[in-house]
Amino acid sequence: MAEIKLSHLKHSYFPAPQGPQDYALKEIDVTWRDGGAYALLGPSGCGKSTLLNIISGLLTPSEGKILFDGTDVTTEEPAARNIAQVFQFPVIYDTMTVRQNLAFPLKNRGVAEAKVAARVAEIAEMLDVTDMLDKRAAGLSPDNKQKISMGRGLVRDDVNVVMFDEPLTVIDPHLKWKLRSKLKELHQRVKATMIYVTHDQTEALTFADEVVVMQEGVVVQTGTPVDLFERPQHVFVGHFIGSPGMNVLPCEARGDRAIFEGHEVALEGPLAGQGGDTRLGIRPEYISLAASGVPATVTKVADVGRHFVVDAVVGQTHLKAITENTAPDTGASVHLNFRRDQTRIYRDGWIATEPRLEAAE
Amino acid sequence: MRTENQKAWFLVLPVLALVAFNALVPMMTVVNYSVQETFGNNQFFWQGLDWFEQILRSERFQAALGRQFLFTAIILAIEVPLGIIIALSMPRKGFWVPVCLVLMALPMLIPWNVVGAMWNIFALPRIGMLGYFLNEVVGIDYDMTQNPLAAWITVVVMDVWHWTSLVVLLCYAGLVSIPGAYYQAAKIDGASAWSVFRYIQLPKMKTVLTIAILLRFMDSFNIYTEPFVLTGGGPGNSTTLLSIDLVKIALGQFDLGPAAAMSLIYFAITLLVSWVFYVVMTKDDPR
What we know:
The structure holds 2 protein chains of 2 kinds.
Chain A: E1 4-12, E2 23-32, E3 37-41, H1 48-56, E4 63-68, E5 71-72, H2 78-81, E6 84-86, H3 98-108, H4 113-127, H5 142-154, E7 161-165, H6 173-190, E8 193-198, H7 201-207, E9 210-215, E10 218-223, H8 225-230, H9 235-240, E11 247-250, E12 252-254, E13 257-260, E14 263-266, E15 278-282, E16 287-290, E17 294-303, E18 308-314, E19 317-323, E20 333-338, E21 344-347, E22 350-351
Helix pairs in contact in A: 3-4, 3-5, 4-5
Chain B: H1 8-34, E1 36-38, E2 44-46, H2 50-57, H3 59-89, H4 96-109, H5 112-123, H6 129-138, H7 148-176, H8 180-188, H9 193-221, H10 225-230, H11 242-252, H12 256-282
Antiparallel strand pairs in B: 1-2
Helix pairs in contact in B: 1-12, 2-12, 3-7, 3-9, 4-7, 7-9, 9-12, 11-12
C-alpha cells in the first residue's frame, strides 16, 4: 500500500508530438493518499485508461514521473511495481482451477506453499467463491470470472495499488450492483489504495471517496461526490455528473448579477476576472417553480419516478428544472426561481464566481 | 414441454444428397469390389472376406502401413512445433504482417504435382541445385534415387516445406485473437514467458491447433501426389507409402478386389485415428 504521486505527467502516442492536440494526457499532477478509494471518471477517449496503464507500468509516459511513497517508479516493469489490475473483460487462465488461478501471482513470486494456501482461502472467503475453488475457471459465469480476476489482484497482501479498468462492463445489470458493493466492502477490509476507472457516474460516485473527472487528457476536477455535484468547477463536470446535467445558459454578467434573456438573476457571489465567454450554470435541482421570477413556458414534462423533469423555454433558451410531487401542464406559463447559492457564472468553461462568505438567504 | 423444430433437416438435405453422390455411392461400389473377384467382362465371383484377410496378413501391406505411420509421425512431430514457433515469432501488427502471411501461404498455393516436380529437380544429385550443392560443395554423398535415407529426408523436408504454413496460419489466427489484457494481466501476475505460452497462448490456440493436427494427420496419411512425383515410391519400396502401394495394386496390377479391400481398411484406419486424436484433444473442454 502506498501513496501515489503523479508529477507533471504527460503522454503522447506520437513519437514527436507537434502540439497539445497530440497528447492523450496533457498535464497531470495529482497525489493519491495511501489506502484511499479513487475513481477516474470521464467519457471514452478522455485519457483515463492511458493514465491507468501508466500507473501500472504497461505504458511509459512521454514526460513526468510516477512516485510510489516517494520512490520514482517511472521506468519500472509492471511486475516490479507490485500493483494489481483488473481489466474490462475478465482475464482468467482457462486451463487452471479457480484455486490455481488465485494462487498464480503468489506462485510466480515464489511464496511458500503454506502461505499461498492461507491467502487463497482468505480471498476466496472474501469473494464468496470458496465452494468453486476446485472447479475449472473456464466454466464460470462472467461475474464469477471477474471476481476471480479481482481475487488475483487482491491475493498479494503487499500490493501498492489495485486498479480497476471499467470492471463491470460485461456484468449483467442486476449483478453489477452486487459486485459494486462487494468492491466497496473489499476496500474496507484490505485497506489498499484503489483506483477505479469508469465512464459511469453511478459506479464512480458509489465506489470512491474522491472522484477525479477527466476530459480530453486534463483533470477538470478532483473532489468528493458531493463537491462534484454541488460545485462543479467546469461546465463539463456539471454536464457529465447529474441526470439531467447542469443547465448552461447564455447570459451577460454584471458584478454579482447575471442578465439572462433580459431577466436579472442573482449569483452566488461576485464575478472574478473579465472578458471571455460567460455562461450561467445551474443544476435543474435548484430551479423551482415560484409565484414570481423568470417567466417561462413549459414544453415537456417527464415523470422519471422519483421526480418530474420539466423542460421549459425562457425567451429563446431551453432549460430543465426538477420538481418533486407536482408538475405543471405542458404549455403552462410559469415563473422560475434560481436558487442563489447554486447559480454561478462559468467563463470559457471554468467557474468564475466565488461564493459569498455569509450564508445565503 | 419443449417442442423441437424439425424443419432444419430440410436444410441439411442438399448436403446429404451431395455427400451421398460423391462419397457414399462410390464407396458402395468399392465395397462391392472388395468382396468379389473379377476378371473383366463384367463377370464377378463371390469372395467373402478373403481379400481383407489376405491384405491384413500380407507383409507388403504391413510394411507400407508401417512406413505410412512413420512418415505421418515424423511430419507431425516437425510441423506442429515448428508451426507454433513460427506463429509465435511472427509480428502481430504493422507492415510485415501481410508480407509474412503471403510468404507463408505461397507454398500451399502450388499444385501438388508441381511441388513434387520442383523438389525432384531441386534434389537430383547432378542437375538439382540442392543435390549439386550437397554433393559437390558440402561433400555429402546425397542421392535420393539410390539412398533410401536420402529419399526419406527429401520427402519429409518437402512436406514440411509444403504444409508447415497451414499450422502456422491456423495458430497465428488463434494467437491474434487473444486480447491484449491477457498479456498485461500475465505481466502484472509476474508470469514467465513459458507460463504465458503454457497458460494463455497454448489454451487459446487449442481449438485451431486441434483442427491443424487433424488436417495434417489426414492429409499426410493419405499423401500420394508429391512423393509419387518425387521418388515414385523408391528407391526400391523405401518410400512406397500406403496410397502409392494402393495405386500400384489397383492400376498397376489391376487387382481390383484386393485394392478395394485395402481402400476400406485404409479408410477405417484414417477414420479411427482421427477420431482418437479428436477425443484425446478435446477431452478437457468444458461440456
